[in-house]
Q: What sequence folds into this?
């Protein structure tokens, strides 16, 4: 007796679960039960689940009876003629819509060749097991699943013509490829989804060979001639906006050229591109920190008594500037109103991007890499017919990844380019390799896709035959210009006094624990010290209690909050972050005592009052307890007492 659940609610029991489930499915197929109902029998739990709720993903499959699909040639012909519609197939019980639960109860064949009497359904097309972007990869049934996943992600990052009205849009952080092309080798999904109007790559001549070592580790070598002729050029667009906001008390922002009296006024050079209305003009060349939209705002905080003071009328500078590390040309300026009716100014900057070392490229098969070198055209190897490849790809990237589809696309692309046609690379329904090889042979080339190539440096023939052909290559959105980051000095955090984070804000590059370990392992102590000097600070320590003391540099006096004024105070150099730690420990009522080297006198002994605290004295008169070092950052500064002469003298006295 099986329990029955409708939309996860228990409704009763049935004695014959298999017959009950079969009756529901047959009733759905003949139209007695709603087409939206799905049913599944979980044998191990002895439960029947009927689902009819909203939000379930369901997909169509052809019903199979005794190993024979119900979709016959007669139905297909009628569909092509337009005599019947898709809905007729569903109503006539030819096609089933299954959800995830019922799919677990079905045995689905990929195609007619794999059908047996046990199968309940068959795929409409084998390609339907793949997602949208994965189905665009040609010859993908010759690649591994992990590479297909990477290929799917890579296609989403490629540059192309994402929208035909891009010129009128203010999209954030987008690029347009200048000369996008449709692929020579494509899947049928390319036409079904209308990607001819939105191409996102270029057809290139690619040679698989090592050349000078510059394409090691997935890197690629680019032909400089191809770059000069426009290969992989793109334009990068970035929008900026500013709004005249209204504040309580009738105070408002003002878009204008700020006066010199304004708090936070920049230099005149920064405002040089602004017109009378405080907005930059289209076509202006701009660089980092140039002002695009001039704006002044009222003071942030207004006290009651400040109404009649001079400071109350002082406005602050709040202009929009070009981000750190960004440059380009002002492409478009838009003046409009926001939803609240405030004046809104939007400025778009464009920047032409020519491929450079470090820019990322990829094929549709998950073979991604960056430019390792751009070599002049005259130094690129050439074939007997004078063809020079646009890209030189490393052969070491193929065997371990087993991307056979990558190699097949090169072969198919070569056939398509020479024959002047597109090649069908639809998954599970591709043009066979044998047919491609025969066509290549008829076109006057070797059937394996290899050609004899010549060295441009010696003019001699290369010993190995090189696999060369045509391929659809993608330029990805990750470019060196957007990642380049360097800083000497700049803004710091208020709390830790260390550089702020973020490339856009002009922040520093963090040297973490593992980077520190590398410097230590290499013995690069001076470089390590220089990197850890970002928040260097000098604090004064009381010799008696080990706590932070106060040093008055004007009067030349020292004072310890605990011990008073008649104590010895020594300055030490530490990280400000460590000083912050000491303060936090004190807030937890923990006594962070700093024991300095200068506690040990010149003769090698210890001060009498420290004997009880520092431990016992050994035979040589030196305390056995090592001087404490906090976090590796505390450096003892003992300029007055310790010197080479004093230490030498103390050793003579000991003897």
A:
């Amino acid at each position: 007796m099986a329990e029955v659940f409708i939309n996860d609610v228990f409704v009763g029991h049935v004695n014959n679960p298999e017959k009950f489930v079969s009756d529901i499915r047959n009733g759905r197929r003949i139209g007695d039960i709603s087409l939206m109902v799905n049913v599944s029998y979980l044998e191990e739990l002895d439960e029947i689940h009927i689902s009819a709720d909203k939000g379930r993903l369901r997909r169509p499959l052809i019903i199979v009876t005794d190993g024979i699909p119900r979709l016959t040639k007669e139905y297909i012909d009628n569909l092509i003629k337009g005599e019947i519609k898709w809905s007729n197939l569903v109503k006539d019980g030819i096609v089933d819509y299954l959800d995830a639960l019922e799919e677990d109860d079905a045995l689905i064949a990929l195609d007619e060749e794999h059908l047996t009497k046990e199968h309940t359904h068959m795929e409409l097309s084998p390609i339907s097991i793949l997602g949208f972007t994965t189905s665009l990869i040609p010859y993908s049934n010759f690649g591994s699943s992990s590479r297909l996943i990477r290929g799917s992600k890579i296609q989403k990052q490629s540059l192309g013509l994402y929208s035909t009205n891009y010129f009128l849009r203010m999209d954030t952080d987008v690029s347009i490829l200048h000369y996008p092309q449709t692929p020579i080798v494509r899947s049928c999904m390319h036409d079904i989804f209308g990607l001819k109007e939105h191409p996102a790559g270029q057809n290139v001549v690619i040679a698989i060979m090592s050349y000078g070592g510059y394409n090691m580790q997935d890197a690629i070598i680019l032909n400089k001639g191809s770059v000069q002729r426009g290969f992989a050029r793109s334009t990068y667009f970035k929008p900026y906006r500013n709004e005249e906001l209204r504040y309580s008390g009738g105070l408002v922002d003002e878009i204008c050229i700020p006066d010199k009296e304004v708090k936070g006024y920049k230099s005149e050079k920064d405002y040089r591109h602004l017109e009378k209305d405080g907005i930059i003009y289209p076509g202006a060349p701009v660089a980092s920190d140039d002002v695009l939209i001039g704006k002044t705002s009222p003071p942030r905080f207004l006290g009651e008594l400040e109404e009649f003071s001079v400071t109350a009328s002082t406005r602050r500078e709040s202009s929009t500037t070009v981000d750190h590390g960004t440059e380009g040309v002002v492409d478009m300026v838009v003046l409009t109103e926001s939803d609240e009716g405030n004046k809104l100014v939007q400025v778009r900057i464009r920047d032409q991007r020519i491929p450079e070392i470090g820019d990322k490229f990829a094929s549709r098969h998950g073979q991604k890499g960056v430019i390792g070198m751009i070599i002049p055209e005259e130094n690129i190897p050439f074939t007997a017919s004078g063809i020079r490849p646009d890209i030189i790809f490393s052969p070491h990237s193929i065997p371990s990844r087993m991307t056979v589809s990558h190699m097949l696309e090169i072969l198919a692309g070569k056939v398509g380019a020479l024959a002047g046609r597109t090649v069908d690379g639809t998954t599970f329904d591709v043009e066979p390799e044998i047919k491609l090889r025969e066509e290549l042979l008829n076109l006057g080339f070797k059937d394996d896709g290899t050609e004899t190539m010549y060295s441009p440096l010696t003019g001699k023939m290369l010993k190995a035959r090189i696999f060369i052909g045509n391929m659809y290559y993608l330029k990805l959105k990750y470019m060196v210009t957007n990642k380049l980051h360097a800083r000497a000095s700049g803004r710091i955090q208020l709390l830790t006094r260390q550089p702020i984070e973020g490339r856009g804000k002009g922040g520093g590059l963090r040297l973490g624990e593992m980077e520190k370990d590398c410097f230590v392992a290499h013995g690069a102590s001076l470089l390590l010290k220089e990197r850890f000097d970002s928040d260097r600070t000098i604090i004064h320590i009381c010799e008696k209690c080990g706590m932070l003391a106060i040093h008055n540099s004007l009067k030349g006096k020292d004072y310890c909050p605990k011990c008073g004024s008649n104590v010895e105070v020594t300055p030490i150099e530490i990280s400000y972050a460590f000083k912050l730690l000491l303060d936090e420990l004190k807030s937890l009522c923990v006594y962070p005592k700093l024991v300095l080297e200068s506690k040990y006198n010149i003769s090698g002994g210890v001060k009498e009052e420290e004997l009880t605290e520092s431990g016992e004295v050994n035979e040589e008169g030196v305390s056995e307890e090592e001087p404490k070092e906090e976090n590796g950052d505390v450096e003892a500064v003992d300029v007055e007492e310790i010197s080479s002469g004093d230490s030498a003298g103390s050793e003579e006295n000991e003897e």
Q: What stands out?
A: The CA atoms of residues 62 and 95 lie 5 Å apart.
